[in-house]
Amino acid sequence: MKVLHCHDAGFNCAGIIRASTESEVLELATQHAELVHQVTLTPVLVDQMKGLIRDEAD
Ligand SMILES: [Zn+2]
After folding, report:
1. pLDDT given at position 40
2. Strand bridging mode 2-5 / 54-55
């Protein structure tokens, strides 16, 4: 399981995005950023998010 903590991306947010693959996490994170934070993730930001994804035991 891949996990991204929204807080790690610099948002004051308790949101945790989980998916089975890195690309799914990034897709969900992009939607989350737009819906919740009104932020559109640029390719550069998406690349930074990639570095924040952690592995979590299922
Ligand atoms: Zn968030």
Report:
1. 95
2. antiparallel
Q: With both helix axes pointing from N to C terminus, report the angle between 22-37 and 43-50 in degrees, rounded to the nearest 10.
A: 120
What are 6-38's pLDDT values in tens digits?
999 999 999 999 999 999 999 999 999 999 999
Distance of alpha carbon 45 from alpha carbon 58, whole angstroms: 27
**Rounded distance from Cα 1 to ligand 1 centre (Å):** 19
Hey, how many other C-beta atoms are within 10 angstroms of the C-beta on 57? Answer: 4
**Residues 2, 18 contacting (CB under 8 angstroms):** yes
Residues, the chain, total? 58
How remote is the CA of residue 58 from the centroid of ligand 1, in Å? Answer: 22
Q: Which two tokens stand for residue 27?
A: 């897709």
